[in-house]
Amino acid sequence: MTELERAIEATLFASAEPMTAEEIGVQVGADDVEAVLAGLAERYAGHGVELVTRGGRWHFQTAPDLAHLLRRTRDEPRRLSRAATECLAIIAYHEPTSRGEIEAIRGVQISKGTLDVLMEAGWVRTAGRREGPGRPLLYATTPDFLTHFGLGSRKDLPGIDDLKAAGLLDPLEEAIFELQLESDDEEG
Amino acid sequence: MTELERAIEATLFASAEPMTAEEIGVQVGADDVEAVLAGLAERYAGHGVELVTRGGRWHFQTAPDLAHLLRRTRDEPRRLSRAATECLAIIAYHEPTSRGEIEAIRGVQISKGTLDVLMEAGWVRTAGRREGPGRPLLYATTPDFLTHFGLGSRKDLPGIDDLKAAGLLDPLEEAIFELQLESDDEEG
Amino acid sequence: MDDFEPVPDHSTLTLTLDGWEGPLDLLLTLARAQKVDLAQISILALTDQYIAYIDNASSLKLEVAADYLVMAAWLAYLKSCLLLPKDPTIDPSPEELVLRLQLRLQRLDAMREAGARLLGRDRIGRDVFARGSPEGLALVRNVQWKAAAFDLYAAYGRVRARTQPAMHVVAHRSVMTLEHAIARVSALLGAAIDWTTLESFLPATIDPAYRKSALASSFVATLELARQGRLEIEQDKAFDELYVRRVA
Q: Among the CATH numbers 3.40.50.2000, 1.10.10.10, 1.50.10.10, 3.10.129.10, which is that of A3-72?
């Protein structure tokens, strides 16, 4: 390896920005570095690192086929928060529904991240906008939601009797549930 | 060049921090990367960029003899005060060591901020307490210290073998502290 | 303080002492001026130089000078021990003290030199450089959200229970509405010109609950019709039969 090659290699390695051949030449104090750059690029061909030129600027980069090695993924199981679970339940029982409606039913505002989490989990999707004032964005569940919770369809969501039998509805009136079931029927 | 060499090369190029062989192994999904690292380092010998190991961590850096080319556009690293430089040397050659021992060697109290500067630079860390009277806090150097000063390990500290042979790094005898008589006693 | 070799200024000792990092620093500088190996240093000569330096001080800032004066006193003591005939009862011996002082000076000197050599090494960011713009190794966290079906249903029940006002609806009970009763009583009044009991207006039913509802609604209906001046009500005493009659 020549001294000029070494100098150019070190210069490009240490530079925070891609450099033009001219800038490199100024840095290493040499004219006509183009040929040396081409030779250096050839030397690096097939390495895990490549010397490439983009728009007349040279820089080192890791070989594109190794990108997967540099981005390690780690699965992190995480339990859905109480707020997110409630939000998901409301969407499931009332879909398609807007953020405003979810908040009205929960009686608590939902933070921006909550819907994001549900969409990230793949259980909730946006479902157009409701015609009317403000044209609110609507949310609905996804097929993945049904799969994850072992439901054949939304009709398999337990109704009032099931929830009551499970003691999940103690202070709740039946009429409310009938109301809700009607609205489900409308959509079904 | 083997795929494993390519993977390790790319990983170390991409990493913003020096990496241990173990970390590299995890990243590329291979055991026993030590030999490959050594081979890669050899392959880069004489290049403008070198693969070096410092305190068991590997990283690429420009060749020292090219410093004159690269230095001009860069700021000098932080200038250390004389007190801080001596402290750093005493810690590095005696570690782990206490503030009292540093003061005994220098014959003067450490002014506030001196150790802070070294810790802020990331070169010195606290290293537990010494069992004994007063349980003094101990200081030692960090892997970043070795990296910054280009030391493969503490064995590479300049002249450490000679100093050791001359007994100049022996634990300080209490008697030596008495040299300054009353004044040290007051501080102790 | 950045200078490794501070230049003593004899005219202003206060400032000069500020420039030293303690008496040992001053001693070491004086010792190095002897230009011999620190292990061979003449302690007698060093003592004389040190004391002369301190004596030359025209003004002393006491808090700064205290350590220097202690050292001067100690050196004067050491010098006297060295010059006087040997006293074997003194422990440690003057020779031992000399050795320790030499060792101390050597230690400080060694560390001072080590520091300078460290700073002179090929340092990252000054002499050697790491990659200018490393891509970085990304650790992508693949969050897998977990929730059981039961959590979902429990959440829904919780939401409804929490937010719906308790609303009590009487279920499975037929009632006669007020409107219905008014219509019935008005219609039946057409046939009843004479005093008629209210009960006789009630529909025939075997459902006692409906009968009760019909009675209550019909009573309110008669009150409403009486208010409109369309019928009259009569009752002999409390809880007795109610009679109604159309207003002619």
A: 1.10.10.10
